[in-house]
Write a structure and sequence with these properties.
Structural class: alpha/beta
Number of domains: 2
Distance between the termini: 25 Å
Number of helices: 16
Radius of gyration: 21 Å
Strand content: 15-25%
Strand order of the largest sheet: 3-2-1-4-5-6-11
Number of strands: 11
Length: about 425
């Protein structure tokens, strides 16, 4: 295998967050600023806390051997549909304590969102007040390109990563306009309904040569026209939908059932949450986008076509309910009906009282650092090795995604070792035929 020539992480790394005033983004930014000042531990971040075993038997921390950017070199910015700076946004979100938010108050107040490319038709429960105007979606895209360029120059950044952390858009299925770059460009110029705001951010980032990360379940960057654009501009892309609470548990429990050859009859999942994401997902059209992402996990892991006697008749139901008193503290409840020896039924109950933004924040940190690394490695297009972080990992149309968390972890670390140049390592795990 040819050695990967990695450009050094020199200069500042700009992180532009779409939805910079949301609960997830403000928690991610405040926590990262705290961590680099030694005021908190970035729990949940693989790049910052985990070790990696090398062929010489050593187990250094990933951040000490993988050539990722330092936290001290990060500069934050982004777009939002509301004008509040990130300090006000974090205070309003109330995920972190006021004491923690105030510990980085000056830095948070300095992060003021740029006007967003937003259309209420795609997120019907929100009504933005800090929004760009243009005659066409192509023109809006050009404004975003200018924003990226101006941010990079104003902050002296050597490179920029763009990450989507805004609300889930209504379901937009892949159509003809998404299947070729010329057709998609024409659709943007004609204000086609098949072109959502998130697609404009993805296009602008890729055209600017930036890595782009899709943290929501919408189509956004997961279609052939964008893949063609990414190849043309040497841009890494990845997504979609951060794997945080309930789906994280599914990618752990489903492999257990498959490995033990236990049958599955039904899986009922319900969630209650009261943040902005919960309000948006209370709209059936936005929920449809999330539902498609959540429902895709089990079948792929269990391979029902190979094991019809165990998995051919699974009833899988997902519900999300907006409940304001819960705020960002989401509760994910699962009832799982499994089948054991001689067809006898059993049940598993899971009640995950999680904190949505607390689980998501370390994923954002890892993703922006690893997407930047991908760019410096010369990688472009879909970064399947980052599937570990997503509910519905992007993949070529002729491939099946890997959903099993443990198989994804092997993929992630295998690529890290390849980048480090430690090809002599023999994996501790026996890579089973999942």
């Amino acid at each position: 295998m040819a050695k990967i020539n990695v450009e050094k992480a020199e200069g500042k790394l700009g992180i532009l967050v779409v939805g910079v005033g949301g609960a997830v983004a403000s928690t991610f930014i405040a926590g990262t600023l705290m961590a680099r000042k030694g005021l908190g531990v970035p729990v949940g971040s693989i790049t910052q806390l985990s070790t990696i075993k090398l062929s010489d038997g050593s187990t250094p921390k990933i951040k000490d051997v993988l050539p990722i950017a330092k936290l001290e070199d990060i500069v934050f910015g982004g777009w939002d549909i509301f004008e509040d700076n990130v300090y006000k946004a974090a205070t309003h979100a109330a995920v972190l304590t006021q004491k923690d938010i105030d510990s980085v108050k000056d830095e948070l107040e300095a992060i003021k969102p740029m006007q967003a490319a937003f259309d209420n038709k795609y997120v019907t429960r929100l009504h933005g007040t800090w929004v760009k105007k243009a005659d066409t979606k192509w023109d809006l895209k050009d404004q975003l390109v200018a924003d990226i360029k101006n941010f990079k120059e104003a902050n002296g950044c050597s490179r920029v990563v763009v990450i989507w952390s805004a609300s889930t858009e209504v379901y937009v299925p892949m159509a003809e306009v998404h299947k070729s770059l010329p057709a998609f460009q024409e659709a943007m110029k004609n204000n086609a309904a098949e072109v959502s705001p998130s697609m404009l951010y993805a296009y602008a980032a890729i055209e600017s040569g930036c890595a782009f990360i899709n943290g929501a379940p919408a189509l956004t960057v997961d279609f052939p026209a964008m893949w063609e654009l990414a190849d043309e501009h040497n841009a890494p892309i990845c997504g979609k939908d951060y794997k945080t609470g309930q789906t994280l548990m599914k990618t752990v429990l489903s492999p257990m059932m498959h490995t033990r050859m236990l049958g599955l009859q039904g899986w009922f999942s319900t969630n209650i949450l009261g943040n902005r994401d919960g309000e948006v997902l209370d709209d059936p059209a936005s929920f449809k986008t999330k539902e498609v992402s959540k429902l895709s996990v089990i079948d792929t892991i269990l391979k029902k076509d190979e094991y019809p006697e165990l998995y051919s008749n699974i009833y899988h139901k997902v519900r999300i309910n907006y409940y304001p008193p819960r705020g960002d503290n989401k509760e994910g409840w699962d009832n799982i009906d499994i089948i054991g020896w001689m067809g006898y039924p059993m049940q598993i109950k899971v009640d995950f009282l999680c904190r949505d933004s607390i689980l998501a924040a370390p994923l954002l940190l890892d993703l922006v650092l690893l997407a930047d690394l991908s760019k410096r490695c010369g990688f472009k297009g879909i970064q399947s090795w980052l599937s570990f972080y997503f509910k519905s990992p992007m993949h070529p149309l002729d491939k099946q995604p890997v959903h099993d968390l443990f198989a994804q972890n092997i993929m992630l670390r295998k690529k890290m070792r390849e980048i480090i140049g430690d090809e002599g390592y023999v994996n501790d795990y026996q890579e089973a035929e999942y």
